[in-house]
């Protein structure tokens, strides 16, 4: 999508013009080619203050991590294969730029033209090299945080290479929901457990069990706070958030039989009340 | 003798543990989550996209082949289908369906029934938003062997229109002079081989859940 009118017309037409190679004049092409390069290069690196040293592009790689990895941490090994500038025999053109040249055509008549002017530099060629990098997923890391590797981005033959940045993307978990350093989860208990109490173990992200015990009535939607059972805080791993368990009560699927209504159900408490009295009491 | 009898089960345990944790499957394989450049082996250009739309056909973002080896707009991310089936570090199998997402613009490699502008083959575009497009973003990796090895030249066959990702050498003029047309063609030939080149390759990992303590 281009806002520049002239460029838009050119882009719209390039499909047909492709076969007419060499048709265009040279100056406009070279200028737009370099303009595109520089525009992109500086766009990819907003922090660059010193415009004198050209810089290669940054590469941002999304790194998907699970909530288990956010809890316990992990290391991810990657192989970086990248082009590296190496000395080659001979010379090459570098630091090419547009300059205006004024030529005299005759007495009092001048012409100004754009010219590409380059310096001479030692020749370089790009050779692919590989190295292994290790990215640490620190406990408590948050979505969007970045781990940069300076100089591991795209090379620039006339300057410095850009950076490689790993951007953390925390995946959704089937059991736990993250809110800051707290974890939220839902547990369904039966109607009898809701009325009479229960004991259970919840498996946490690293496999350890969180013990939950209730001896009172548990209403649907009731929340239980377990301090210290959330995620470690990124800045201080010793501080952990809380685990908040929301209880959902499962009601019987079929209607109660007349016997059950009279309290013949053997799972009811020893107090001797029948089901109807128990519910009336609530 | 007593020591020997106790030693044997310990050795067996260590050996099995080693097989589980010590050896990665297919260490040279391309994995999901990796970011890479693809080189067409016949024409020596890299698969590339940029914020330039086709002037004909679908009018979507164009996909081309470029000669430069240091252009960040040639990076593509390997992902599974949108069902979340390919986790980070899982080696890609030959025949597996994947998506290729252009890193800088977030659009997926895509093809559809539009003619390509120069050769009148099938137009290949970059489509979608933030990595999500539609069902025409899916390609299967065709290679011999079990996994897509980085050293191998592979083909990409489109799921839906059955064409192969190809270049036959037609070149664009201004403003993307010298870039080659990338299109889909029904024939499998030497124009549709691609090789993984520069990139950030996540090492293949074994799913830790599969190896519980013995």
From TrEMBL, chain A:
GO terms for biological process: protein folding. This is DJB11 protein. Residues 61-252 form the Chaperone DnaJ C-terminal domain. The lineage of its organism: Eukaryota, Metazoa, Chordata, Craniata, Vertebrata. GO terms for cellular component: endoplasmic reticulum. It holds the Pfam family DnaJ_C. One of its GO terms (molecular function) is unfolded protein binding. It comes from Sapayoa aenigma (broad-billed sapayoa).
From TrEMBL, chain B:
CDD domains: beta-trefoil_MIR_SDF2_meta. It is found in: Secreted. The keyword Signal applies. Residues 27-81, 89-144, 145-199 form the MIR domain. GO terms for cellular component: endoplasmic reticulum; extracellular region; protein-containing complex. Keywords: Repeat, Signal. The keyword Hydrolase does not apply. Gene3D superfamilies: 2.80.10.50. Residues 1-22 form the signal peptide. This is SDF2L protein. It comes from Sapayoa aenigma (broad-billed sapayoa).
